[in-house]
Design brief:
This protein is an alpha+beta fold. It has helices at residues 2-21, 85-98, 124-131, 144-155, 180-189, 255-279, 292-304, and strands spanning 23-33, 48-52, 55-57, 59-63, 69-76, 104-110, 114-121, 162-169, 192-199, 205-206, 212-213, 217-218, 241-242, 284-287, 307-314, 322-329, 335-338, 341-343. Helices cover 29% and strands 28% of the residues. The strands form 5 sheets. It has a 6-stranded mixed β-sheet, sandwiched between helices.
């Protein structure tokens, strides 16, 4: 009997440990706006629903936009960005000035390697001084994936609260040891939000008349941040287009070859940046360097204008490693942005 009792105790203890291991707290940053892109404030926990794999979950954590923000400015300094670094410094300086006293920020750059110029700090003077250290890399390489992986894992891994990466890059990864799929898997597990900004670099295109031109870049219209009105206007404004021209040396390739190479490279770069932002419920922008200050202003405001929800996932019905999340709001005019997946059992 003692042997049987012992075995029963071991089995029961194993079951308890397994049940506990199958519980995962999932943090879900959420942005809610009306159909004109204006932030909707004043929502309560009962206004939200979270569905995990199609089933309603109990919201065990709820925070409003008053939480301080930890921000990483992550800047591409590969050789292709040389002509726009001055604009980036100026825009980054404006962004730092928009942070609240309780917000902390860090500055990092990447080309063939990742460099942290200033670790997380509340000191605005130290942050602005670090911007003067930004310079174009001397060696070939653009390790976008390594850079994001390092910030998410090493710098934001154990920092509670609202964590945001503002990533400025032309998106063309070259030389990373971390693959895109591995990075996206890590982002699914984290609650870091990525605001990525794609700015056009590389060779310019030449039209049929031999004139240098740059492809048109589309992005949603940048609007001043404002709170939604009870009855917002439904009329949508037309999207503006921004372009930037970079003067480069003559290329031995034909016009059609240049066009094909640039089109494919830029499309892949845009897709990569957009995937990172979509995975983390951030936002993706396309712009020329002259518009960076306006985009930074919008990001600084939106980073604080968010809700953060949390629930305890009990993964007892499926062995899938990735869970699907849907967040709904009890308002007909609401547009919700939230992470759509998370990694289970972690």
């Amino acid at each position: 009997m003692k042997i049987v009792s012992t075995l029963l105790c071991i089995l029961l203890f194993s079951f308890v440990l397994q049940a506990q291991s199958e519980k995962t707290f999932v943090s879900v940053p959420v942005s809610v706006s009306d159909r004109e892109g204006r932030y909707i404030s004043g929502l309560e926990k009962d206004d939200f629903r979270i569905l995990q794999d199609g089933k309603d979950q109990k919201i065990t954590f709820f925070a409003t936009e008053d939480e301080p923000v930890s921000v990483a400015l992550l800047i591409d300094t590969s050789e292709s960005t040389k002509n726009v670094l001055d604009n980036i410094r100026a825009a980054a300086r404006d962004f730092i000035g928009l942070l609240n006293n309780k917000d902390q920020c860090m500055v990092a750059t990447f080309d063939s390697e990742v460099r942290v110029l200033q670790s997380l700090t509340y000191e605005r003077g130290a942050l602005e001084k670090s911007l003067e250290k930004i310079q174009t890399g001397e060696h070939e390489g653009t390790v976008v994936f390594n850079a994001v992986d390092k910030i998410v894992g090493d710098r934001f891994g154990k920092i509670p609260g609202r964590n945001v990466i503002v990533l400025l890059s032309d998106g063309k990864d070259f030389g990373s040891s971390v693959s895109k799929n591995a990075l996206l898997s890590q982002l699914e597990e984290s609650d870091v939000m990525i605001y990525s900004i794609f700015y056009q670099t590389g060779r310019v295109m030449v039209d049929s008349n031999g004139e240098i031109r740059q492809p048109e870049i589309r992005q949603p219209e940048i609007k001043p941040v404002e709170v939604a009105q009870p009855e917002p206007k439904k009329e949508k404004k037309k999207k503006k287009k921004y372009t930037i021209k970079l003067t480069l040396a003559k290329d031995p390739n034909t016009t059609e070859e240049i066009k094909l190479i640039d089109t494919v490279a830029n499309k892949e770069a845009v897709n990569v940046l957009q995937e990172m932002s979509d995975t983390t419920a951030g936002r993706f922008y396309m712009s020329d360097a002259q518009k960076l200050s306006q985009i930074f202003k919008q990001i600084a405001a939106e980073a604080r204008q968010q809700y953060r929800l949390g629930f305890v996932s009990r993964n007892v019905e499926t062995n899938a490693t990735v869970g699907n999340i849907i967040v709904k709001v009890n308002r007909t005019d609401a547009v919700v942005r939230a992470r759509g997946k998370y990694r289970k059992g972690l």
